Batch of 2 targets.
Target 1
Amino acid sequence: MGTSHAEAVSLPHGASVLKTLHVFPARPNGMVDGAAVGVEDTLAGRAAHGDMGAFDALVTLLQGRVFGLAMRLLNDRGEAEDLAQEVFVAMYHHLPTFRGESKVTTWVFTITRNRALNRLKFLRRRGAYNATDLDAPHAAAAMEDHSQRPAHDQVQVADLRQVLEGHLRALPDEQRTLVVLRDLEELSYEEIAEATGLPMGTIKSRLHRARTVLAQQLGPQLETLQP
Amino acid sequence: MTRLELIMTRMNKAEASELLSAHIDGDLTAAEQAEVDGWLAEDSELAKERSRLVATIALLQQLPPPPGPDVVAAVRQRLSSPAGVVVAPKATPTRLSMWMPRLQGVAAGLAMAAGIGGIALISTQHAGPVQVTSAGVADDMQARTTLVVVGVDLASIAHVAAAMNLSVEIAPSGEVAVRGAQRTIAQLVLQVKADAAGRGASVAGVLPQADRIEVIFTDHAQPAD
């Protein structure tokens, strides 16, 4: 792996991970079998062959996104942290059999999404999950109905984001997953189809429904943001 | 194509509305794009709906990622522990505090089990807090059931299951969910039943016939399911 990769990766563990990246034989980002290969895929390939430095670097690269998805699906920091760890343990065990038919990020999101939804089912079945028992202290305020506010009562963008975060949490699990994967993680429709196993038409209609609900809940405040 | 045919084949407003998200994402066919463009040009209500969606998506894209922990060390620790069982203080006290009383003595129990060369369900006092983690992938279960156990420590079941490389989760209520291959869980249940019978305890319930299953071990007489 070349220098350009090392420069492109911003890692908390800086020196040691960058050193690991530098000692890889040159295998730059490029096209392999017609598919673009990202740094995550390269690291995954090396981790699959037992390179623990590459595995650590891969976890470091992906942990923020995995935790973010888990957090937004589970609404609980402790659960999300546990889940993120589980996802990477599972990733480690299954890397040798990962065929690379999808990007490693899509694959990891698939594991995260499946496990998070299973965990939600488990917690709800056990009565241990309450959608209003959110981690954010201002969640209740964020869930207020702002759609009835007069338009001239302009909400600052930061406040509106917080309101939106609350409404996002209240979406049904599948719709919330789609919004997070598409609008926050910026996956393509094809990648979302891989990660969720849903047909493309279902993804489009559910995503549209979710966005429409969010737009309606934000109400007149949205007008203040429009040019 | 006649004028009537054009009217008949033209997308109606509701259909155009349904495609607004895909229109914003640039994920329409050329024909669909042209139809929606046509509607947007002549229907201000639809155009306004699209603007609201654009603003919502822009806001979503501005949401900051939740600040997350560095899990590299924890993942490495899980990987280095046999069967995914981590004997360490739990990082997040919310769940630990709820099931810690049930987990006391498990480490000592496991050590004793290892010493006699087998697996025993022993509720022995006392060791530090332990954490049970999922050891394998268990995303899609084909069937699930609940087994009611009386006189057997649920946390011990969790640890034996983890030692058998099954996926284990402990609910705040103390109930234990075990997921994995039916045959492996059947071995676990046989072990539980054997141990329970020897101590005058009992296990009630029947395992479903499926390759991959989830079993909830509970000590409640009437499980929530």
Note: The two ends of chain B are 60 Å apart (CA to CA).
Target 2
Amino acid sequence: LTTAALGIIAYLIGGSITLAQLRRTGRMILGSTLGEALGAVLVVFLAMLLVIPEGLGELPAAFLALAFGAIAAPTAPAATIAVLHQYHARGPLSSTLLGVVALDDALGIILFASVSVVTTAASLTRGIGGAAIEVLGSIALGLGMGFVLSRLAVRLHQGSLRLPLVVAAVLLSIGAAQALDLSALLAAMTLGFSSRLWLGAAGDRLFAPVEYFEELVFLIFFTLAGAFFDPSVLSGHIHLIAVYFFARILGKVAGAAAGARLSGAPPSVSRWLGLGLVPQAGVAVGLVLALGQHPSFRPIADILVNVILGSTLLYEISGPILVRFALGRAGELGIERRRSHPS
Amino acid sequence: MKVSEWLARHDGSIVTVHASRPLDEVVLQLLAEPCLRDVYVVDEEGRLVGHISHKRLAEHALAEHRPAHTRRQLMERVAGGVAGDFMNCSLASASPDEELEDVLHRQLEHEIEDMPVLDHSGVLVGAVNLTRVLRDLVRAELRADASEPD
């Protein structure tokens, strides 16, 4: 259920971006996204490496730290958009923030899938060549399935049949990926991206019916994660939650600053962008649930899920406050604009 | 009645744009024609290549005023685009030689308010508006009822 639900989210994330949009988005947003996502992965990995003891689960501590790092990249766009809307924020930071939150879930899934390939036992036995085959094979599977889906969509005239067609394509891609020892997430995301690529402007029709599912899928994630919730595990690993929480914020702030500066962003963007990217919720919970299903991580699934659940709670409380703080410091809150430029 | 006759009797004006036109300009062009709702995308020869509904345009124009977006809407808000990126390429059309009744049936079947009318070479020559057809029919029926002796 988790893999199927995450597959639908990955399909929607893949289909939300087109090549033309990527070209138009500009260097500043692309550079900032790359910086903040990689920054979060790197800092969380290093910080967790310092605090995760050897012997926690069957895998080396470095692999567990890398797994936490891979979950650190995605943000929750809904909280950021809601704050921007509530305060009528406008300006370079606001528009860069929107661009970055639109892209970083896709980058987060790519990073997570790549790290999963490295940290799973199957790939360890197959080496670097096997890992490359797993990544490239997943992309090839998604491209092929996307082509088939787009051809079928062209021939399908009844709107009511689009939803079952898309769900069937996602489930088939996930099933084929699992049967072939490929990444189901990467295959589903490539399916979304390629079906929109093959269909051009008409590709929208393959996403509108599924978009209503997104909230339901997040509901499933939180319900499943709730089943793992254990106050004793949470309190026993409070140090991991604290380290993950602060390391991710530090990684986002430092990575976004570096990425934005290198891509020529103004100081108001490079200084405050990272604080606007703190919210994290549904996608991270889905990713940790998927990770917990893997045989190598299953013995410590409750620790992984409780750490991410605890940090999600903190991010969802502090995230919107930090977004507002960053916008205020950059002078982009609507109220402040009206004060400084009275009509 | 043939579609061509209906078009000759009514103002079948439509808003057309080229696929390369930025969407913000398309919105302004449509707003300049308060009676029209949808935009048709045509190629250099005037052949119909796509359609953008007023709902889709409103979604784009009002994105800033909405508190939540789907991922697709968010990316569209960030990256903007041209008419060709937003148009629906697969759409039903009518021919000037068709009977209006047949076109109406198709309009209701596909839930289309304005049915584009294409000549034999695919050039857009007008649109059959469902509300106008309905108004004509209702008026004709009322006149017929009034002329009948009690």
Note: The mean pLDDT of chain A is 84.
